[in-house]
């Protein structure tokens, strides 16, 4: 879990105060980079549009879910699965932004904790009494739970359809599927409403270099996602990097059995786009952490870190592209390709977490549970 560490906070506040003062405190920073423009580009062209797209996708998922519940047939199941995947792909562009209301409600923990806990799901359905917002149910909701509910309740589609139509508990199965999807939609609406309300202005006006300023929080959330959400969760944990043996049952999209690579590549693209300030689903590029790093490195005459990062992301993508579409298959057949992918991702982790943060004079504000 991401932890805001008090010692780091106090240390960073003292260290930063001695070398860089913030606009939030009524003074200016020691560099001339336009931090507000960076934040405006992030909010207006990346974060809010991605959340809006996810909200639209989840509305479509709800509509397909209602149609499937009314008529549980193969065509409606296929459409529901398609809408689930559409939303899951968009989620890859949202998950890293664990800031503001998203952090307060533990949004990502209610949307994408995997592997899902099948026992918890089955117990919830059997009891017909559950609080899906409880932290105890974080592994029984969200995209991974829907993955199980649409692909994993039986060994074939005929039996999955029976699970929602002729089974003795079909109504309870339908209700749980409906409740999980409705909750995902409601959570996303809450986060989006915060951004389109007052939080956007609060966010873009927090331009200082302090442990609580937007520039610092945002880059820490970004690095935490890259290190934990992408490098570790999608690749390292299934590959057994943090355990004595590989764990093929820990892949994203476990029950659909064909999307783990697609989701990982999309997550990597989201990282690349955000670092370089590319608009979500657009062609424009604005001020970004890449431009910030380039300006500081150019001014002090040091090496081109931005190019090094982008080259390493490309190397990681090339290695990931050779993997099986189903990472579980890859782990079970030739896990060395998974560990090589992890190694390429790890090189970029060092560039982000050490070189970039040192260049920006920003402290790490989290402790990674993996301990690396």
TrEMBL record:
A Gene Ontology term for the protein's cellular component: cell envelope
Pfam hit, one: Peptidase_M75
Localization, UniProt: Cell envelope
Keywords: Signal
Domain Imelysin-like: start-end pairs: 47-335
Xref: InterPro entries: Imelysin-like, Imelysin-like_IPPA, Imelysin_sf
Major subcellular site: other
Gene3D superfamilies listed in its UniProt record: M75 peptidase, HXXE motif
Protein's name in the database: Imelysin
Organism whose genome encodes this protein: Nonlabens xylanidelens
Lineage, uppermost ranks: Bacteria, Pseudomonadati, Bacteroidota, Flavobacteriia, Flavobacteriales
């Amino acid at each position: 879990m991401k932890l805001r560490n008090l010692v780091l906070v106090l240390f960073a506040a003292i260290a930063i105060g001695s070398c860089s003062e913030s606009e939030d405190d009524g003074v200016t920073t020691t560099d001339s980079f336009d931090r507000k423009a960076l934040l405006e580009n992030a909010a207006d062209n990346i974060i809010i549009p991605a959340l809006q797209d996810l909200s639209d996708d989840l509305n479509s998922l709800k509509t397909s879910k209602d149609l499937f519940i009314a008529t549980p047939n193969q065509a409606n199941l296929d459409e529901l699965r398609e809408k689930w995947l559409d939303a899951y792909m968009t989620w890859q562009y949202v998950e890293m932004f664990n800031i503001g209301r998203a952090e307060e409600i533990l949004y990502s923990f209610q949307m994408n904790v995997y592997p899902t806990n099948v026992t918890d799901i089955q117990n919830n359905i059997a009891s017909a009494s559950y609080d899906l917002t409880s932290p105890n149910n974080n592994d029984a909701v969200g995209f991974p739970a829907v993955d199980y509910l649409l692909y994993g309740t039986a060994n074939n589609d005929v039996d999955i359809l029976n699970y929602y139509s002729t089974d003795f508990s079909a109504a309870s199965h339908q209700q749980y599927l409906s409740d999980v999807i409705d909750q995902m939609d409601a959570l996303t609406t809450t986060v989006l409403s915060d951004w389109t309300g007052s939080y956007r202005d609060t966010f873009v006006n927090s331009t200082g270099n302090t442990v609580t300023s937007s520039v610092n929080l945002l880059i820490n959330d970004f690095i935490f996602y890259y290190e934990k959400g992408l490098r570790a969760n999608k690749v390292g944990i299934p590959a057994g990097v943090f355990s004595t043996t590989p764990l093929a049952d820990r892949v994203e999209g476990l029950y659909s059995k064909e999307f783990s690579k697609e989701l990982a590549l999309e997550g990597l693209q989201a990282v690349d786009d955000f670092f370089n300030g590319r608009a979500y689903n657009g062609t424009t590029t604005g001020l970004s952490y890449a431009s910030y790093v380039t300006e500081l490195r150019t001014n002090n005459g040091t090496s081109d870190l931005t190019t090094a990062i982008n080259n390493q992301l490309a190397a990681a993508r090339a290695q990931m592209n050779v993997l099986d579409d189903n990472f579980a298959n890859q782990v079970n057949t030739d896990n060395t390709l998974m560990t090589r992918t992890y190694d390429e991702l790890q090189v970029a982790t060092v560039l982000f977490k050490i070189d970039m943060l040192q260049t920006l004079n920003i402290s790490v504000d989290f402790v990674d549970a993996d301990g690396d």
